[in-house]
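Researcher: Going back to the complex we discussed earlier. I've cleaned up the inputs and rechecked each line, so this should be the final set. Can you rerun the prediction on the complete assembly and write out the structure?
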Amino acid sequence: MEMKLAFVGMGNVARAFARMLCERQDDLARDHGFRFRTTAISTNSHGSILSTDRIDLIEAAGRMERGESLVGLAGCEAVTDTFSLIERCDADILFETSPLNPVDGEPAASYIRRALERRINVITANKGPVAFRYRELKRVARERGVSFRFEGTVMDGAPVFNMVETCLPAARVLGFEGILNSTTNIILTGMEEGRSFEECLLAAQRAGIAEANADYDIDGWDAAMKAVALANVLMDAEIDPRGIEPKGIRAVSSDDIRAAAQRGGVIRLVARGDRVSDEIIISVAPEEVMKDSPLGSVRGSSNLLKIKTDLMGEIAVLETDPGVRQTAYALLSDMLTVFN
Amino acid sequence: MEMKLAFVGMGNVARAFARMLCERQDDLARDHGFRFRTTAISTNSHGSILSTDRIDLIEAAGRMERGESLVGLAGCEAVTDTFSLIERCDADILFETSPLNPVDGEPAASYIRRALERRINVITANKGPVAFRYRELKRVARERGVSFRFEGTVMDGAPVFNMVETCLPAARVLGFEGILNSTTNIILTGMEEGRSFEECLLAAQRAGIAEANADYDIDGWDAAMKAVALANVLMDAEIDPRGIEPKGIRAVSSDDIRAAAQRGGVIRLVARGDRVSDEIIISVAPEEVMKDSPLGSVRGSSNLLKIKTDLMGEIAVLETDPGVRQTAYALLSDMLTVFN
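Model: Rerun complete. Updated structure for the full complex:
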């Protein structure tokens, strides 16, 4: 059976995923019986197209990278907006990787809802819909008998949501702590080596990890959104991201970092989720941790998530130096989970 | 549907598992639809019993802890040896936790083989059969349409084998490195704090982590057996444990540890598996690593395994301060995987 794929958003992550898919198509067919064709692509600035046959993914990615429109690709019909594309596409799985809207997760959340309602499985790497609308989207997916998966929203393709779901059955998540934002960790660990905040931020931007406007990372919002997603999914919380007050790293000075070093410590932006009586409390703030502790050992763009459980005690997942390929892999991994 | 459970070996791990099962039976029924009854228990020194109805697991564990025989438990028939028990039991899942035989994995490997041949799913926490006979046992399980699972053989219930299988689909494991033996790590990290080798070993023995004869841990054999299991399962290697020459920690002196500390380093017993051309090479040896690296941050009985992959880069799993409950959880986790 051939799976029909649709893409909403075709940025770096989706294009890296498209290349991974094409690169590995023989392995996927041989080892997993997975065959695919692409039937729809929606982009913000390169047009949106539908096909009743198949869209050449590599050609589409190439056009976008040359600054060309997708409209005009052989055998494709142009569509004017993403909602009509979702309404009309013939797809088994929709990959939603449109840009994050930190205010309410829209329009991505509505795209996802509509696709699920049409009984299309949805895989997203977009934190917004998971942080703001997890329960609703999960419910719609269940009612329609399709999957809603989002491994790539926290720690890229490192197993987090899928690991708890499939490898920690019957265990209850009691809490978590983690370093979940790469930009702030690059800055904090760079400052330990004597570089300035601005210098480190610039390096993170040049490496393609931080956005041109990195406030969202620096002020702790990216980590907070991930913490909400973790709490709502893994701990069955109902936290509204609008109620969170993260503390970012703007107030951390070189003096603070030197003072911590004298005590054998380092400063890390730590996201926490804890069950306190019957409530689940989220916090994001810079903390001093021991340099030779697991959290302290996480340097540069690496991430770490500790999960405390009742039956299995405490385990952690560490992701070393992730890049766009690791986020692309999250889509691949979710895709095979949906398919199996 | 009620699953019929059989136990070969009823030591600390199996008894902790039995208690976990009974403690959680309502949750397991409600959340997973899992119901069970025990139909067979085989032990080395407390007799072996079969039942056509159900064996009271808690009563059986209690008898063993009071030094009493299982023979005579209400509604049970005594059996003289484990092979006849496996031959005659009416079971869906057999839990094999008999003591490790480091020379050839016997008789556990033959117990497992016979159970699989009888189309009984097998779950083991015993490294021997996995290190020595993985391919054969996997093949028999596949031929008979049952499962052979062994999450508890490396890092207790922390997701290792199950994680790679279910959460890293299509990714190829290129290599691994890890701290896989708790006894040696307790000794090495204790010596960093100025205690002697003997003092630390005694503490590990008192905590129930090291055996009375801890040579197998200290000389690197436990870590080597785990490394072979990892290589054979995750990297499709065909390594015979008899060909491995681990280096243990016997030659590590307090002077070595002080010298490493002066360079910001610590000594850890590191197990490695690497693909070198078309061959897979296993090594186990003490290594100096940076104190503030992920490997260096692993202290006491904690374990860490880094896995290098093609599609997902490098990730690691850390297990903090495991105890017998964590190994018991491995059996529970494998049981629900088999059941689903």
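Model: Worth noting: The mean pLDDT of chain B is 96.
Researcher: Good, that matches what I expected from the previous run.
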